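for the writeup, i need someone to sanity check this before i put it in the appendix. the sequnce is what the collaborator sent (i think, or maybe the updated version? ugh). structure was predicted straight from it, no edits. if anything looks off just tell me and ill rerun, i have time this weekend
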Amino acid sequence: MDQQQSTAPGGPSHAWYLSVLDRARGLPAVATAVVHPVDALSLGAAAEAAQLGLIAPILVGPRARIEAAAVAAGIDISRFPLEDVPHSHAAAARAVELVRAGDAGLLMKGALHTDELMHEVMASATGLRTERRVSHVYLMDLPDHDRPLLVTDAAINIAPDLEDKRDIVQNAIDLAHVMRIDAPRVALLSAVETVNPKLQSTLDAAALCKMADRGQIVGGVLDGPLAFDNAISIDAAREKGIVSPVAGQADILVVPDLVSGNILAKMLTFVAMADAAGVVLGARVPIILTSRADNERTRIASCAVAVLMSREAVLAVKPPA
């Protein structure tokens, strides 16, 4: 990825967003099952992504509610296939069926709860599970920061154990490769930068580093535990005497749990004014997972990242035996 620094003091330059969008728009649109798009936000995001040539939406949900939302928002959906199902749970199930049948290459969350969609994705017999743990990655482009940051996991795994974290890290590394970060530097975050037996996140960080040494995690450079400041600030790392190929220049921030990750991601978005994109990895196809609070740029960027994953990535995941 071209690592361009923000040129707008106090605000993002959107250079990363534009570069990702340009890459994705150069690829064929991906058939995308849009799950329960019964409000203006989700319907509008799908229509805008289609207009930009990123996705070919298949609208899945109650026909009457989708059509009413389209009329209210002034969105023409006549060119989109529509799978008429009675409610959100049926929409999630049908969307997963479309992916399993090969009729859709992406899932996009509409106006339903994340856990309702993920319940169908994770169903053992009928879902989209692979041998890999499913996890979420936020890509953050921060003003005055010379590289995008990947933050994981802030949306799916509540209290991941060591095995979960191995997959969370590998999913993020795979995404970084698609984002043209060839050897991403992975910071395993905690409150301190030394191993403390009373602080599980430091033990997990140390174990993950050794797993990478033994080839159980590949494609990135890991270090941890690291506190947030010495993960992203060379000055902070130098002040604490940390000698590391990761400290001060991390590409991926791996948080201890969902609460800390969610707070960090939202702080970067709403306080630090980062451009953001979010995608769920580890299933058979990428899942575009956005929030009602996300702006249009975030929704479109999330679609673009998912398209790149779908079209350019060779995912090292396969259905469980």
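The longest strand covers residues 55-61. Residues 1-11 have pLDDT under 50 and may be disordered.
thx in advance!!
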